[in-house]
Amino acid sequence: MTASNSSLAFNSEEILIGGKWRPAENGATHDVYNPSTGDMICKIGKSSAKDVDDAVRAARAALDGEWGQMTAVERGRLLMRISEAIKNHENELTTLEAMDVGKPITQARNDAVAMARYFEFYAGAADKVMGHTIPYMDGYMVYTLREPHGVTGHIIPWNYPMQIAGRCIGGALAMGNTCVLKPAEDAGLTALLFARIAEKAGLPSGVLNVVSGVGAEAGASLAGHPDVDHISFTGSVGVGKEIQKAAAENIVPVTLELGGKSPQIVFDDADLDAALPFLVNAGIQNAGQTCSAGSRILVQRGVYEDVISRMSEAISKLRVGQATDNLELGPLVSAKQKAIVDGYIDSGKESGLSIAAQGVMSDDLPEKGCYIKPTLFRDVPPDHKLAQEEIFGPVQVVIPFDTEVEAVKIANGTEYGLVTGIWTENGARQMRMAKAVKAGQIFINNYGAGGGVELPFGGIGKSGFGREKGFEALYGFSVLKTVATKHD
Ligand code: ADP
Q1: pLDDT digits (tens, 9 = 90+) for 182-239
Q2: Residue 379 and residue 191: Cα distance in Å, rounded?
Q3: How many CA atoms lie within 13 A of 51 on its CB side?
Q4: pLDDT by residue (tens digit) across 103-129?
Q5: How far is the CA of 83 from the centre of ligand 1 (A)?
Q6: How far is the centre of ligand 1, averaged over its atoms, from the C-alpha of 170 (Å)?
Q7: Measured between alpha carbons, how far is 409 from 42 in angstroms, rounded to an integer?
Q8: Which residues line ligand 1 at a C-beta cut-off of 6 Å?
Q9: Which terminus in the chain has less CB density within 10 A, N or C?
Q10: What CATH number labels 263-452?
Q11: For the whole model, what pTM was predicted?
Q12: Alpha carbon 49 to chain centroid distance?
C-alpha cells in the first residue's frame, strides 16, 4: 500500500534498516486487515531473523556516528522537533491507525497526540538526567554517571501502537540509545509512518530501525539477539516469559509491561456522580483492549445496587460502530481477538452469571467486522475466570464486598498488579488502601487507563517489572556507572 493521503507517502511493504527503506528478506509480507470491515487493506513487510540482525547491526553502527556524539541538550532538541513533526502529521496518523486497528477517530487521535506528548516530555527530560556524588573515604571523589545501554529492542503490542512506541522510543532516545522497533503484526502501519516522520525531522540514519513482522520470527530474533543491550516489551504474560528467557541467554535486562485485571473499588461514601464516567470508561476505552482497563468493579454493599443501576444505564447507551463512525466503541482489533472475547462472554453465560447491561450495535455493520457489545456482568464470584483473567475486550464484572479488609483481599486476589482505582471520600481510608493494594499505579477518586505520560507505569506480580513513562523510565533505559577517584 502507498498511503496516498499522506504527504509522507510510504510503502507498507518496506522496513527501515540503517536509514534505508527496503523490502524484508525475499520480499516477504503478511496481510493487513481493517477490523471495521474485515477487508484486507494492504500487505506489510515480514522481517526475518536476517533482517533483524541487519537492523541490530545498523543500530550498533549508529552509536558510533553523529548520534553518539550528540550532547543531551541536542538530543532533547531533536526529540522536540520529532514531537512537532508528529503533531504536523496528526491527521494522517489518526486516519491510518483508525483503519489499521479499528479505533474510533477520536481515540486514534488521542493516541497521536499522546505520542507527540511523549516526545515533548522526553525532549525536556533528556538533559536533566544526573548522577550523584557519594561521600566516601578520605582522599576519594566518587560520582555516578547514567549512560545509555546502547542498542535497545522494543517489542510492542497492537492496542496502543502510537502511545507505546512514543513512550519506549522517546525514553530510549532521550538517554542516547539506538532502537530497533518490532511493532505488532496487527498494528504496524503507524510505526512505519512515524519512522518516516522522525527521519524527516532529522533523526540520523540507523538510530531508529523498524522491523515489522510476526512475533515468533522477528520478535523472537530481536529478543534473543546477542548484540542487543536492553529489551522493552509490552504484551501478554506468555510472550513476556519467552522474552525474559531469550534475554536471559544473553544476560540482557528487560522491562516487561504485561497484563492486568485492575480493580476499581467503590466504597459506600464515594462520590458516585464523579465515579460513574471513570467506572464505565476505564473498562470500555479502546473497546476494553487496555492493559490497565479498570474492569473489576468492587462495590461496597450499601451502594451496590445503585452503582449497578447507574453503570447499566450508561452502558446500555454505549454505541458500537465502525472506526470512522467515531462512536464510543469501535471493533476489536481482529477476528481472533473477537473470538477470544466472545468465548469469555459465553463462559459467563454458561456459569449462569447475569448480565446487567449491554451496549448497542449500529445498524448495518459489515458482517466481517470484529464487533462486540460492551457487557456488564454482576454478582461475579471473585474466583471466576471473568474476574481473574485479562479479557482484553469491553467486558466488566461487578463484585460486592462488605468491609475494607474484604475489599483488599479481593483486589489483591489475582496474579496481576498493574493499576487500582479507589473511590472514597474518607482520607484515612485513601491512605490505608493505597498502601494495602498491590499495584504499580494507584488512582484515588479518578482513574487513568492508559493515560499519564508523566506518571511512572508498570506492574508487580504477573503484570511485569520495570517502569515505563515519566522520568523513572529513563533510569530503565540507562546504565549506572560508579566512578571512584583516589586523590592526594
Ligand atoms: P497481545 O496479543 O496481548 O498484544 P502478544 O504478547 O501476543 O500480545 O504480542 C505482543 C508483541 O509481542 C507483538 O509485537 C508480537 O508480535 C510479539 N511477539 C509474539 N510472540 C513473540 C515471541 N515468541 N517472541 C518475541 N515477540 C513475540
Answers
A1: 999 999 999 999 999 999 999 999 999 999 999 999 999 999 999 999 999 999 999 9
A2: 41
A3: 31
A4: 999 999 999 999 999 999 999 999 999
A5: 27
A6: 21
A7: 48
A8: 155-158, 182, 184-185, 214-216, 219-220, 223, 235-236, 239, 242-243
A9: C
A10: 3.40.309.10
A11: 0.96
A12: 25
